[in-house]
């Protein structure tokens, strides 16, 4: 008996360990193409060799090349079109945010593994619809990444090629002027491409994880359209809340530091560009504007994804309240007309979906109709099996347990974004008051 007990314990320990170990990529693995992309980007840290290569590439393209470009190619003696007075802000902004993104991505991949980090180990508990839509979104994520990185790289490439081609004799070079400028241009473009890709990659992965939770919330909303019991609804909602807490815990430092770094970068840009002695043109400020658009786009991806999943999670409260009201109304109808007759009527009832003026809801709401908490009534299936007290307790639970993405206890919803916007606007007006005298 002792040997059997020890074998059972060893088997359970092996299962627990295998659950949290990294899944090796193979031909039929759904993450094979994504792992290949990470290896080509040199951000894969699944083993010591790739980790060392990853750090070497990061130090080369995110630190060494930008530093060499700023100190050796700043060209202070160049003409007005080729001088780069804002190069320090551009390089520091991109390098700082890309360093934050690289460190977070390295920690995520090395600590959790790509499969656990993207919650693929939990997909076995989800419905077929959630699994298929999540796989489709995963395959679409690299396209979304290229949509953001591609235009930025094309604009930066056009600027760098013009800058080196038109000012070849003014720009410091080693040996042959054309070969030296060509090598420097390629290295600078590779550095820009690497840093922007790392920044957007972490943001797109966050968007992908949030999309999975949105799919789960949409699937969870079906509990209110079928005959479900309170225990199953509570169990599923607690599981979703636990995953939202895990996402918040993993990304909270990245979201907060990204907000601080991007805000500092924009204020530095504003402080430099509002000096009365500066002369501005597209040649001087074009790269600075492109850097600002890149960082703000990445920050918008983070905040929009977090806000969207928070409000989807909070829509469950409205859906539960509407389900409770519909069930209560049907139960009163049943008390007056008989339970059997009401059950037949409730199954055949066609709730109105047309407004009082005869226009359909689609004419009023357009594409803004929520997928979870729609404006249509819910035919009650559960009032005969779930008591009023249980339904009321469930609604109270949803009202007092708001789910969503949080950053150190502060939930990211529209009111939080309004607060952030108000603080940023106050700081901007204060800075403008100090520089150009706006009061």
TrEMBL record:
<feature type="transmembrane region" description="Helical">
    <location>
        <begin position="285"/>
        <end position="303"/>
    </location>
</feature>
<feature type="transmembrane region" description="Helical">
    <location>
        <begin position="49"/>
        <end position="68"/>
    </location>
</feature>
<feature type="transmembrane region" description="Helical">
    <location>
        <begin position="251"/>
        <end position="273"/>
    </location>
</feature>
<keyword id="KW-0472">Membrane</keyword>
<dbReference type="InterPro" id="IPR021924">
    <property type="entry name" value="DUF3537"/>
</dbReference>
<keyword id="KW-0812">Transmembrane</keyword>
<dbReference type="Pfam" id="PF12056">
    <property type="entry name" value="DUF3537"/>
</dbReference>
<protein>
    <recommendedName>
        <fullName>Extracellular ligand-gated ion channel</fullName>
    </recommendedName>
</protein>
<feature type="transmembrane region" description="Helical">
    <location>
        <begin position="192"/>
        <end position="210"/>
    </location>
</feature>
<feature type="transmembrane region" description="Helical">
    <location>
        <begin position="144"/>
        <end position="165"/>
    </location>
</feature>
<feature type="transmembrane region" description="Helical">
    <location>
        <begin position="88"/>
        <end position="109"/>
    </location>
</feature>
<keyword id="KW-1133">Transmembrane helix</keyword>
């Amino acid at each position: 008996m002792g040997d059997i007990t020890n074998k059972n314990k060893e088997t359970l320990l092996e299962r627990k360990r295998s659950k949290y170990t990294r899944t090796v990529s193979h031909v039929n693995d759904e993450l094979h193409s994504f792992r290949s992309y990470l290896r080509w980007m040199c951000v894969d840290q699944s083993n010591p060799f790739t980790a060392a290569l990853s750090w070497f590439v990061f130090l080369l393209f995110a630190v060494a090349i930008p530093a060499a470009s700023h100190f050796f190619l700043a060209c202070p003696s160049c003409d007005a079109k080729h001088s780069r007075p804002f190069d320090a802000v551009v390089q520091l902004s991109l390098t700082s945010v890309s360093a934050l993104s690289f460190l977070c991505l390295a920690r995520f991949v090395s600590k959790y593994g790509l499969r656990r980090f993207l919650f693929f180990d939990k997909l076995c508990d989800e419905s077929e619809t959630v699994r298929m839509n999540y796989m489709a979104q995963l395959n679409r994520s690299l396209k979304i990444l290229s949509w953001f990185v591609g235009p930025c790289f094309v604009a930066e490439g056009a600027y760098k090629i013009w800058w080196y081609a038109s000012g070849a004799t003014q720009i410091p070079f080693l040996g042959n002027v054309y070969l030296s400028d060509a090598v420097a241009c390629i290295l600078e473009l590779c550095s820009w491409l690497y840093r922007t890709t790392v920044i957007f990659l972490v943001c797109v992965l966050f968007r992908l994880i949030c999309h999975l939770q949105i799919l789960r919330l949409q699937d969870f909303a079906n509990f209110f359209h079928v005959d479900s019991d309170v225990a199953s609804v509570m169990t599923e909602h607690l599981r979703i809340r636990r995953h939202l807490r895990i996402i918040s815990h993993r990304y909270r430092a990245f979201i907060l530091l990204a907000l601080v770094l991007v805000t500092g970068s924009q204020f530095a840009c504003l402080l430099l560009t509002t000096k009365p002695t500066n002369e501005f043109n597209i040649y001087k400020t074009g790269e600075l504007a492109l850097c600002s658009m890149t960082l703000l786009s990445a920050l918008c991806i983070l905040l929009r994804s977090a806000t969207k999943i928070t409000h989807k999670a909070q829509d469950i409260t409205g859906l539960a309240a509407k389900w409770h009201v519909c069930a209560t109304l049907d139960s009163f109808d049943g008390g007056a007309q008989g339970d059997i007759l009401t059950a037949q009527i409730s199954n055949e009832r066609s709730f109105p979906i047309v407004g009082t003026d005869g226009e359909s809801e689609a004419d009023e709401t357009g594409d803004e109709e929520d997928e979870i908490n729609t404006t249509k009534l819910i035919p009650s299936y559960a009032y005969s099996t779930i008591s009023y007290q249980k339904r009321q307790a469930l609604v109270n639970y949803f009202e007092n347990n708001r789910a969503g993405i949080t950053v150190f206890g502060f939930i990211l919803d529209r009111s939080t974004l309004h607060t952030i916007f108000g603080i940023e606007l106050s700081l901007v007006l204060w800075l403008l008051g100090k520089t150009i005298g706006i009061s």
